[in-house]
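Appendix B: complex inputs.
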Amino acid sequence: MTTTEPTSERIKKYLLEGKRFDKRGLFDFREIKIEKNVSKKAEGSVRVKIGKTEVIVGIKLDVAAPYPDSPDKGNLMVSADMLPLSSPRFELGPPKFESIELGRVTDRGIRESGFIDFEKLCIKKGEKVWTVFVDIYSINDDGNLMDAAAMGAIAALRLARIPKYDEETGKVIYGEYENESLPLKEDSPVSISIHKIGNSFVVDPTREEEDLSECRVTLTTYEGAISSMQKSESEALTIDEIKKIFDISEETSKKILKEIEKKIK
Amino acid sequence: MTAKFKRSDGREFDELRPIEAKVGVVPNADGSAMYKSGDTIAIAAVYGPRKMHPQHQQNPSKGQLRCDYNMISFSVSERIRPGKNRRSTEISEITKWALEPVLLLGMYPNQVVDIFIDIIQADAGTRCAGINAASLALAHAGIPMKEMVSSIAVGKLDKTLVTDLTKEEEDYEGGEGPTDIPISMTHDGKITHMQLDGKIGVEQLKDAVDLAKEACEKIYEIQKKALKDAIDMGNGEKK
Amino acid sequence: MERKVVIPGEVIIEGEDYLPGEHTEKRNGQIISIRYGLAEEQNNLIKVIPLSGVYSPRRGNVVIGKVENINSNGWFVDIGSADSAFLSINEVPRYVNKDAMEEVFKIEDILIAKIWSIGKRGIDLSIKLRGLGKIDEGIIFKVNPHKVPRIIGKEGSMIKIIKDETGCDINIGQNGLILIKGPTIDSELYAKNAINFVAEKSFVNGLTEELTKWLKENKK
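Resulting structure:
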């Protein structure tokens, strides 16, 4: 059952006092837990828990032809699957908009930041490059899958290693590694979604709160600048509101970035 | 059982891989479980009994079971493209057949019990791990059941019967090669699922069934403990 | 026999003296559980109290639900069971204009109602008794419906402690939905957390003392 109207009124009223049902501040995250290497078969993988929300993210690498417009660059493919296992609200069948958006927003967060050095993923210009697959699966949805997915993607990429590649046979030797990590920059991008609920803004909503979200703005910050953004839902924001959202993102992303980096060291 | 066969991981011929089982791993679900056997990890979540949609699939005389088995893309070395394929479609149905005989769904007309199984990491025996997780999740969801179901793959490597094949053993090429026999049983010894790929004589196949019975007995004890451990009876100790 | 956790198919007790009660079966002189739960004996009758599972409606239950559809004869209410329940205009203690059903209850409205009949046609609700009807304000949240008896306690003793301590008015639906209305949101959340504490610890012995301790520790 979605959040009831009487409860919604209480949540909004409480937010106006700067308070949340679980005692957090408006711009505080729930407890974040990152477990490394949940699948040995992946080149890198993690389980991310934000409160009761849980996702697993795995990285697989394969060798393929580059895109004609970037013959010396590796490829990135991000996909997200909101498993019906993870919520009574998710159904089997072709991907719904929400999971497509989840994958695409995460994709742009990684791609646009320049965090991955795609040129170093080139094996032979115009012929062979590495494709990096980032696959995101929800395990339990208690709100804010968006930020959990981005966090998981970054952590899994950090942990990933490049498997051996046999140039003669053209085959990837999975399970054997050159002990080489992916070509990543030192800084990590971090994505924060800010939600408008009534006249308040919050980060990291629980499911109960996310049901009331009128608008979500996801911002990826990289090296102190914004590198991608998505405003979702058909709710208009004033110029003052969007500027306030930028400020919240700037403040929160610093805090979260530190926390993530500590956890994947 | 004939000549000694040396298993590469040092196990006895009838020895199971280390098992971990836990219920309640998906808080949103009505029941859920994780079952890990060696490097194979399955999670299962049960939703329902709930209203069957689409409506034309409703059965007015009893509730139905619906299973979905899925391997996540990075559970194996060569990435699996997300979505259904022929293999997962078949295993989903096999899983349903393995579990349906123990369920008492008579009091749930027009309703459905949904089981979703996801394989996180695969090293052979994923359908068996999925069935073990699903049986746990069904019990955990409070679904009326006559018995628990336990599942194991026994196999024949060259001429020797062994319990609980790994991927490496499944790919064994010596002598008569590998035979893979996944079997699921109720605790009172009824077979609800059995498949076979390979080559094996009838007498030895009979022995394989007995070997599976022994293994399922051990798995049952682990399933039982996982369910009992989940209840906090206080006094600091779990009963 | 001492109370114990049992799983489906497990032999609870052997012997011809025992009778199979709820969620058990007799097979070959053995009483066997068909559900995961707590097995109990009372005068040789063995029953299992389920610990989990979706809500199964019973006649006489007071439940909380959400209006999800309307026709000219009444309202369909989601009470968390597989079938939605129906509130007929005849079970509403006021005049209803059939052309303006939404004026009485609209979709998304939250009702507290009593199940007065369960039949082949479905679950029928009534709000004719005092205290039933539309919920206008308060915090509504869900607990596992199997925890409800423990939250209420013997003759309402457990919930009375929480009501007295928090100053909140609390309505517990047998379907696991709970409504709390108090002088402040803080007091409502205090009550909600206390109820969640009881739900989590529901099988611990000496729960009343544990709750009293919790309430002291978590008081503002």
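The mean pLDDT of chain C is 95.
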